[in-house]
Design brief:
Elements: E1 3-14, E2 17-28, E3 32-36, H1 43-49, E4 58-63, E5 66-67, H2 75-81, E6 82-85, H3 97-109, H4 113-126, H5 142-155, E7 160-164, H6 172-187, E8 191-195, H7 199-204, E9 208-213, E10 216-221, H8 223-228, H9 233-242
Parallel strand pairs: 3-8, 3-9, 6-7, 7-8
Antiparallel strand pairs: 1-2, 1-4, 4-5, 9-10
The chain binds adenosine-5'-diphosphate and magnesium ion.
EC number: 3.6.3.-
Protein name: Glutamine transport system ATP-binding protein
GO molecular function: ATP binding; hydrolase activity
Length: 243
């Protein structure tokens, strides 16, 4: 299997705080990786380094063939390949749902208008929001906004999508709709890295669990192995609180 994201001895500091401690991690094409761990452990920092939203201080991080730390690397090339879905959706509030999805393919990929529209409408169907194409984000629920954000990411035909707590800001009844869409995407074989507190997703949809604590990878296992038999005391304690 080919690595699509590869960390080699990566360190990251915020001032004196050592947020990522000598990370060695290789994410392969098609994997659905759940990153779980306590608040403040560095999960967002880890995932945000993967498309250059946070800089690393040392080590090497190769993403879809590009060296993130190399000043000559154009981060836009990486962001074309690797999408990101945020906890708070980050939709363009002054654009319709359809425009949210067509904007980047038009500007960045110069996709033909008709094809762009068709791809966007197909994606809206897929996430169950074809009837909301002309709505503005403020007219949608949180769960609907997040499904638009996922469709927007998919429209770029990325090689991987990063999700940072995509359901944490949602009311409970909307979480499942978003998780169902994520499962659909996973089933199509897209590489996904998902910071999540949804243990059901991590266990049933993901095929790898990384337990992160104190800026370090503590466990890296297949879901069943991790959930049935966590090796570290820290993971056992964490699981006893969240399950
Ligand atoms: P998590 O996503 O697991 O909650 P974060 O990656 O957000 O953890 O944070 C890891 C640590 O880094 C925390 O101690 C947090 O306070 C700190 N941190 C995160 N972002 C910044 C920042 N921009 N400046 C300074 N410290 C930060
Ligand atoms: Mg976080």
């Amino acid at each position: 299997m080919a690595a699509i994201i590869e960390f080699k001895n990566v360190n990251k500091y915020y001032g004196k705080l050592h947020a990522l401690k000598n990370i060695n991690l290789s994410i392969e094409e098609g994997q659905v990786v759940s990153i779980i761990g306590p608040s403040g452990s560095g999960k967002s920092t880890l995932i945000r380094t993967m498309n250059g939203l946070e800089k690393i201080n040392s080590g090497q991080l190769i993403v879809t063939g590009y060296d993130i730390a190399d000043k000559k690397t154009d981060l836009n090339k990486i962001r074309k390949n690797v999408g990101m879905v945020f906890q708070h959706f980050n939709l363009y509030e002054n654009h319709t749902v359809l425009e949210n999805i067509t904007l980047a393919p038009k500007i960045v990929l110069h996709r033909d208008n008709e094809e762009n529209h068709q791809i966007a409408m197909d994606l809206l169907k897929k996430v169950g929001l074809a009837d909301k194409a002309d709505y503005y984000p403020r007219q949608l629920s949180g769960g609907q906004k997040q499904r638009v954000a996922i469709a927007r990411s998919l429209a770029m035909k990325p090689k991987a999508i990063l999700f940072d707590e995509p359901t944490s800001a949602l009311d409970p009844e909307m979480i499942q709709d978003v998780l169902n869409v994520m499962k659909l995407v996973a089933d199509e074989g897209l590489t996904m890295v998902v910071v999540t507190h949804e243990m059901g997703f991590a266990r049933e949809v993901g095929n790898r669990v990384i337990f992160f604590d104190g800026g370090e990878v503590i466990e890296d296992e297949k879901p069943d192995v991790f959930f049935d038999n966590p090796k570290s005391e820290r993971a056992r304690q964490f699981l006893s609180k969240v399950i």
